[in-house]
Structure formats: structure tokens, C-alpha cells
Amino acid sequence: MALRKITFLPHNKTIAVPTGESILHAAMEAGVYVQASCGGEGLCGKCRVAIESGDVDETPSEHLSGEDRENDFKLACRCRVKSDLVVRIPAESEIDATVLGKFMSPRVTARIRHTNIEELKSRGLFIPPVEKKYLEMAKPTADDNLADTSRLISYLKTQHHEHRLVVELPVIRKIPDILRAACYKVTATLTRPVVDDGKTHISNIEPGDTSHRNYAIAVDIGTTTVYGQLIDLHSGEVLSEHGDFNGQISYGEDIISRIMITEKPGGLDKMHEVLIRSINGIIDRVIGSSTVRREEISTITLAGNTTMTQILLKINPRYIRRSPYVPASTLYPQIRAIDLGLDLAVHATALVYPNISSFVGGDIVSGIMGSGIYLSKRLSLFIDIGTNAEIVIGNRDWLTCAACSAGPAFEGGGIQFGMRADKGAIEDFLIDPCTLAPMIRTVGDVRPKGICGSGLINMVANLFETGIIDNLGAFHRDLHSKRIRERDGVYEYVLAWSDETQIGRDIVLTENDIENLIRAKGAIYSGCQTLLEEVGLKISDLDRIFLAGGFGSQVDVEKAMTIGLLPEIAPEKIRYIGNSSLLGARLCSLTNRVRKDVVDVMKKMTNFELSETSSYMEHYVAALFLPHTDLDLFPKLKSRLQARKTNCAAQAG
Amino acid sequence: MALRKITFLPHNKTIAVPTGESILHAAMEAGVYVQASCGGEGLCGKCRVAIESGDVDETPSEHLSGEDRENDFKLACRCRVKSDLVVRIPAESEIDATVLGKFMSPRVTARIRHTNIEELKSRGLFIPPVEKKYLEMAKPTADDNLADTSRLISYLKTQHHEHRLVVELPVIRKIPDILRAACYKVTATLTRPVVDDGKTHISNIEPGDTSHRNYAIAVDIGTTTVYGQLIDLHSGEVLSEHGDFNGQISYGEDIISRIMITEKPGGLDKMHEVLIRSINGIIDRVIGSSTVRREEISTITLAGNTTMTQILLKINPRYIRRSPYVPASTLYPQIRAIDLGLDLAVHATALVYPNISSFVGGDIVSGIMGSGIYLSKRLSLFIDIGTNAEIVIGNRDWLTCAACSAGPAFEGGGIQFGMRADKGAIEDFLIDPCTLAPMIRTVGDVRPKGICGSGLINMVANLFETGIIDNLGAFHRDLHSKRIRERDGVYEYVLAWSDETQIGRDIVLTENDIENLIRAKGAIYSGCQTLLEEVGLKISDLDRIFLAGGFGSQVDVEKAMTIGLLPEIAPEKIRYIGNSSLLGARLCSLTNRVRKDVVDVMKKMTNFELSETSSYMEHYVAALFLPHTDLDLFPKLKSRLQARKTNCAAQAG
Question: For chain B, give me the number of helices (H) and strands (E)?
């Protein structure tokens, strides 16, 4: 997609955005404040800008006055970029130029890291756990009447150097007829062992040469959503992808409620069945949108948190939620997909990611494999923020992990107007430090309905850096604005007035919300500190950060550092890897090395139960500030805050 | 059982028999001819003997005349031995004393070889493939919250030195609840790998200590009959045993007819189902006659010929009967018993004996393991005579095997009055060389219905050694006896007149019958010769013979040598091991060493297709004589025959 250069005046800030991007988006990306309270739906008519040069695609709006039209103003949210542009922000949106660029920074999202299948190939690692081998065998004669299975094994040895082979009974049943029907030209499917000295299973046999048609499905089983990808094991490409809600959602949103249902009579069977139905739905969709036939799928790799994994395998998860929080197992044997109820052929093998503990599950193991932090000598922090937050710190020599009791604040839980990053969620936010008027952008550019995780982080970071809230998250009491008010003894900031919203109520951010966010980010930050301290290291020793999880791609990493969620680190050292669990599952489908490495990773991994680690509570309490009690941990923010103070003093003086 | 000494006069032959044995039996054992044509039922009244000293239990009979009573005669078949006896055979039964002891020899049956469980124990081999281990584990705590399965594995390592463990999914599902319900005191069932570097599977877990209750079932699947034994894996004892017809019998008596049914639509499923029903019937019976509960059975070992094995595993056997006679597989993976339809608990493992070829099946492999010929440096011949005959020759360094197209003569097939060794089958026979009157004994001491395999061998050997038939099996045409007659151009010998039988017809042995027997024994003998020749050895190099199969226990091994079925060897070097297939299956249940050794045996084994071995036909044609064209292969018989000739010449002179 072609990038266009947009220069905003009078700030004189330039940013590159793709053709077709709205000017409101571009301004937000550039950190340029434009009044906007309808989320980008074109209803409030506030985001007026003047196009000084260049072309835009404009959707007409009745919210512009005749005078605005005469002055050649357009609504930023209704204009899409066609060429390089120079855009002037009118005075009403413009904040004091002297503070511009001081604490209004362009949004910095983490760079997205893509898996490089070519790299996998060049390293000789593109050897899927399930491979197909084509064979042309001599027909048996009186002098050479080896058993059919022995003949197959013997040719696999001589033609493909395959050893330590075992054949499963369902395959033995097919061999005699297929050999003869196919004139002894057949394709054998080989399922590799996890360990080098294990056995390779001959899991299928087909007539003729089908070695170029070999497919896998990778699945991430989230508590909320299930994602699947169909993978061509010949080319390594993702052929199709689909995500859907985990059908269990109607039985309760969080893990605990799901476990409670499994404890009722028939509950485990029910939860298993609902989950399998969701996965089967995804299997249908990824196959349906491809030219692959169901029986060409050789393997399905599944990664999920410990509870989801146990429900998938129909293992009672009741003890996961009971002290001392013991899971049933960490490793699981490979099994036939049909034995789990999955709608695949009888020969399809299911590979299930291992768990580390009750709270650090297969999704995290999968994420570790997907991020590759276990391969590097550099010290990496891996954070997966979903319904809960898990962190992993380590390198190729050692690994530590912990689940943080962060709670669901980042998914909107415990926040008065919190919601998931669905349509209408405020995901981006800037504030005019003088008027305290907000600039908001919502998912889908519609009138706001609530606040999602990345929006929450941006708001609190903005409010803190502009001095509207203090380092305890409390609003300064001396700001005289109708947007800051007290309700039932709690201060709140009005993001959108009721008539600007979809819900007919004022959407506010309360001090309670901010407190919840501070607790959540404090749990994660102090978790990192504790893990590092346990291995004798400090935050400043971190070389890289990997962000995973649904919310990570939109989050402004500078803002996440401002609130003290992420350690302060150069933004280019942060990578966003998206759904790391799905990525890990895909990698596992593509290279058997990952399955072998998992066993090593499990051995190198030390799991910390933070609640049982004595220093954790101390770190946690110290982290319940914006960004932290110890500002020296955030030197760049410290200097920005000092600059603002100087600036304010100068302005006041 | 106390043995009593019986001396027969005027022969002055003494034999030891158990108390309660009938005098007719004892005479037969001693090779002492007594007139007897009703098979021992007490109806013909011919077997009169005088008890000169000692006590007998006599059942009164109306078939003794008043004169007989006055002379103190009793019927030999109605008197049972109570003490040492001296018995005189009256003149009518007495054959010329000069020929006595020359070609009437006591019956020599092979010594029965029993498995010595104590020996197995002392050699440290009493380690069943499925063992139980009791564990007392510490409860998990916050500091020690290993996953349940990891805890189990860890304690198995430290308390029982178990390594390379894997846990199956159905067991993982049970572990969490059982650990807690049993206060972490549990018994784990371990299924051993076949190879040393394989994995041990944890196949079950039970609360408390059940390690002393561990049972196995061993099954021999014959084409005709199925036998099962329930084995205590703690003591090594056989607790119960049961045999029954293979339900497939109603679909055809031989292998070929069974295969033909499997080729029809639904036929394989049907044959599988019928077989499984037979096995399940036996499982019910062996469990029912014990105090063992079904779920205490950890393993079932099954041995059968290649066709039965493939039907058991639901593998289409159609190519077994088609040139070049290729079986589906030789080795089979271990599987869950319930996956075969066997009525055992979900955790019971089925171990299936491997096959060598289409015609040398798991029953023979099992027999090799049961006989132990693969362990000795001595050169052994193993012969299993059932519906067909298989031979194995070898020692601990090498093994060869072949299936002989002997046909079913030894089971009564192709013999005019042939039958299995059921009640009424003539199984023992002596002839008065002067009157040509027979002495017959039947299974169950009832009037005769037909002739079984051991009876047939005894008859032909007797007729040959007494000079009544020649070395081609033809009756001498100059013997003037109403018992030898011609019918439709075929000579025959009348064993019992119609009024002496259960069937109301004369029971005869025809020249055709003898010819069939000669072909059958010729196929086996020449098979042995061919195998030996292929490895550069001769018949005289054989150190030992193991006889297996249903008919072997009653067969008079000297007589079997006389007809040229067995190579001439000292009788004490012949062992009868009974149902060797069942024995092998039992051994495999008792010691995992056998399962490991099977793999070695399979590697050491060379299978000969006799029809493809050039020298076989030559050997076969030379063996179509009594005992053989080359009488020097049977030196003892040769000298007996020469002695008889001299004797006859002397009598004639």
C-alpha cells in the first residue's frame, strides 16, 4: 500500500500513512490533537481541518456550517488521504504551541514480527512433525514375499532413510488393499516422535503420489476466542484463517466460571462438547475457504491455557482453582484427532501444547516457541495480556515464568465503561491540556460505547503526563472544568457526553477505573521485577520485549511505559507478535524441531507462584503509582515530567 | 497319585500305573494284547483276564458267562487297579509267546514338559509385561505443586527406579481425583515396552495398594478351538482354564473357507465378531470360575495362526490364500483390549503374537517361545500338528521354519472313519498277529464311533510291524481273514463290526486312509529333511524334538517313528508340550523377556516356502513309504523288521 506524507500545521509534524487513511486517524498517529468527541463517526462536527495542499476523498457532512464550507474546512474524520497533504488544524483544536512536541508524542506501536518461512527452510528446520513420503515398490513374488507392512517399512528405509518405524493398526488394515490397488506406488504419512530416540509412526497410507498435498491446522483456544489457520505443509503458507468466539462464553466469561460448570454433573462433558463444536466450526471454515479436502489434513496442533487444555482433553479441571493449584499434567501424549471429537479423518494426529502450571498454560508455552526467546542469548521479556497476564523472562540458557493476578482490566473488566476492543470502543485518546477537551477515536469510527484496554492506557498516560491526574491516579482537585466532576464521592473525567454516545449516557473514566488499571499494571511490572530479582537481574538488564495477545497491536508502547506497565526500554526493542499462541501452534505444525524444543523449554523453565514469592508483595506495593514509586526506573519519563514542570513554572511565571 | 505294579502273565511284562486305572488300559500301555472290540465299554465281554494276586474294584457285568465266573475271570475293562497285581491273559487273547516282546512294545508317549515358574523366578525373569507398583506420595503444597502426573512419575522414579514413563490420556483423566480420594496412596499399572529403549506406559491408576491383585489372560486362538487361561501375575499360577470351539466353525472347518467368507461383503466384520464372541465367552468362563474381578485383568496375550490373527485384528486376510501368499504384517502394535471388542476394562492391554508368514503364524511363534528352543545350543525340532502342520528347526543361533501341506489327516480329515479325539474315537490299538483280531480302546471307554489321529498312527504302525501291510501301506493279499476284505476295489481292515459300534456300521481302515496318512507324514518328514538340508545338516544331527498340538499327548512316539512321521531318536529326547501356543501366550504374560526375545527370534528366523524349495519334492516322494525309501534313516526299526523276518522264517521253517 502506498504511503502518503501528511504534514500538520501549525505543529509542523509530518507522518506517513497509507492511502485511504482518515485524517483523524493520521492526526492521532502523529500525536496531533484535533477536537473529536463522536469517535470518528462524523456526527459531532468538531474535527474541522483545512486542507492546504493535496487531494482527499471527502464524504459530505451536514455537520459543517456554511461558514465552515466557505473557509474550506472539512471534517478530519470524513476525509481520506489520496495524496501527500498539508493539513492545518484550526485554532479551536490547537493547543499552546509551546507545549507541542513536549509531551504530545506520535503514537509508537510495537513493530510487528512476522514468521519467516524462508528462514525456517534455509536453516533446514522446515520438517513438519507429519510428513508424506512417496514410494515405488516392487511387487511381491514367490522369492520375495515379505509381509506387506514389512515391505513398506523396508522401502521407507532404503528409499527415504527412515528408521525406527512403527505402524498403527488402522493403517495395517488399509495396507494390503491399497498396495495392490495402487500397483505398489503409494504415499506413506509419517508422524515424527518428539524425542530423537523415539519411534516414527506410519499414520496413513494413500494410493499414488500425494506427497505434495499435506496440510495442518493450527488452533489457539482462548477463553474468549478460538482462532484457527490452515497451513500448507508443502509450501509453509497459511491458506486460510478464521476466528470465532469460544462457544463456552455463554456459560461464563472467565476461567473460574467455566471450571465451576465442569464441577457440576455432566458439566465437563458439556464444556468439552461446546469447545469441540467451536473448534469444529473453525475447522469447517478454514477448510471451506480453501481447496483442501478434509482427509488431506494430517495434523492439528492445539494451544490453550491450562483450563482450556484440560477441557479439550476432557480432564477434570477442578483442582486448577483450588490451592495449591495443581494441574493434572504438563505433557500430553499425541492422540488421534477423532478421539477428541474433532471432525477430521481417522489418521489425523492431534498435538497438544504442554502446560507449565495451572496458570501458565499451553498458550504461553506456544508463545515462547513462537517468539523464539528460548533461542537467543539476549535477555527477553515476553508478556501475554489477555483475560489474565502471563510473563516469561529468560534466554536460551534459562527461563522463568509467572502468571500475574492482573485481572481483566486490559480487556475492560472492572472498568465502569470498560469493554473489549469491539466496535465503538474508544481505543485512542488525546486531550487538550488547556480546555481538557478530548480527542477520541473508536474501533470502527462510530460513536463511542465504552473504553477498551489500549484506550484506557492512552487515557491514563495522557492524563498523567498532562498533569491532570497525579501519580496516585487522582484528579487534581483545582482543575475547573465541567469534564472533571465528583459523583458519589468519586472523581471522574467525562470522555463523551450522553448525546455524543451510542448508549445515551455520559461515558466517564473514574478514579476507581484508574486505580484498577494501576493495580493491573502494577501486578505485571512487579511480576517482572520479582522474576528478574529471583535470578539476580534488574529491569535495566532486559534486551527485548515481546508483546502478545489481542490488545497488543494497538497499544502505544510509550504510553504503556508512561503508566509503568512496561519497563522503559527503547521502543524499537519491543516487538508485537500478535496471537503468539496461534503463531506457536503454526510453527509446531511446520517444524518438528519446535516439538523437540518444547521438551527442553519445559526443563529449563522455572515457574514462580508470585503469591508464594516473598519479595513480590513489596514490589507490587511500590508499583501502585504512576509510573512507580521509584521514578529512576523510568529515566526518560522522569526527564519529560521535569521538563513539563519547568515549562509550567515558566508559563505561570 | 500312588503307582501300582501290574505284572502280565504269561508275557511276564510289568508296568506301573496309577491306582484306579483299568486293567485294559494298563495292558494297552504295556503293549500286552487282550481281545477287546467294544472300546472298553464292557459290552463285548471279550477282554477276560484272571487276577492271580492283588485287589481290584470290579463293576459287575452280565457279559461274563457262569463258567467265566467259576474260573474267576473278570473283564479287564471293568476292573480298576487297587493294589499291585498279577494278571494272567487267557489263551484266546494270548498271541504266540515267541513273538511277544519282539514287535509288541509298551506304549511310549513323550514326556510332558511343564513350565517351571520357580525357575523363571530364580532366573529373575518373572517380570510380567504389565506390573503394578504401589506408591505413597506427599501431598502437594504451595512450595511443591508439581502437576499430578509429574508427581506420580517423579515418585515412580524415586521409589521404584522407573524411567522413560509415558502416561496415556485415559489415565491422566483419572489421576487428579484418584490421588486426592486415596490420600496420595495409589497403585500404578505399568506396561513395559518390547525394546529396552522403549517407553513404559502408565496404563492405569487405582486407589490404595492393589499391587498383589494383578491378573492376565492368555489365549490360544485355534482354527477349531479357542483356549484361555487366567493367570495370577503375583504368584505366576494358572487360576482357571477353559476351552471351547471357535464359533467360526459353523462357517467352515478350515482356514480357506474362513478366508472366503471374509471376502464377502460384511464377511470380515462377521468373522471378527464371531471370534471375539468366542474369546469373550472364554474370558467370562475363566473369570467366572475365579475370585478375580474383570477390572483386575491388566493384560490379555493372544496367539493364533496368521489368518486367525488377521481376523482378530480385523485385517482382511484375502491375500493369505493367494500366491505369493503375503500376510499383512508380521509384528503388531500393542492395543487396548476394548478396541478389539474384548470384554475387559478400558485399561487392559492386548498383546498379539507376531506372525512369520502366511502359513507360520503367531501360534507357532508362541510355541517357539513356549518350548524355549531359541534359548538352547542344542539342535531342536519343533512340530505342531493341528489342522495343518508347522515345523521349526534350530537353536539359539539360528531358526528355520516351514508350513507343511500335511492336510488334516491327524485330525481325522480325509480318513473314512476319521474324527477328532472326542468320545468314541479309537485312540489305542493292538492286533493279534495270528487271528488279526484287534484290541481297541476309545476316548471315554465307550463303543467306537471312529478313528482319531493317535489311533490312526498306532494302527498303521502295528499293521506295518506285524507285516499285515507292506511299506506302501497295502494289505498283503494272502492273509485269509474276514477282517481284511475288498470293497469297491479298495482293501480295508475291519476294526469293529457294526453291532460293536455306536454307529451301526462296520468301522474300517482302508488303504486310501493309509495312503492319506502316508502323504501327511511324508510331508512333515520331508519338510524336516529339507529344512535341515538347507542349513547343511542331517536328521541324525537333531538333539531334541518338541511335540505340540492337541493330538500329541496320546501319540505313541515309537509308533510315530515306525510310520516315519518322526525321525528316529531316543524317546526320552522327545517332549510333549501340549498346547504350545497357549503355553507361549502364558509365558509372555509372565515375563516381558519373552516379548523382547520374540523380536530377536523373528530376526533369526528364516521361513521356507517348501513349494518353492527345489529339493522338497524329491524328499517328499522318498518319504511316501513306511517308514521311508531309505530304511537306514530308521536303524532301530530296520533291525526290528529284520528280526521279525528271521523269526517268521524260523517259524515257517
Answer: 16, 30
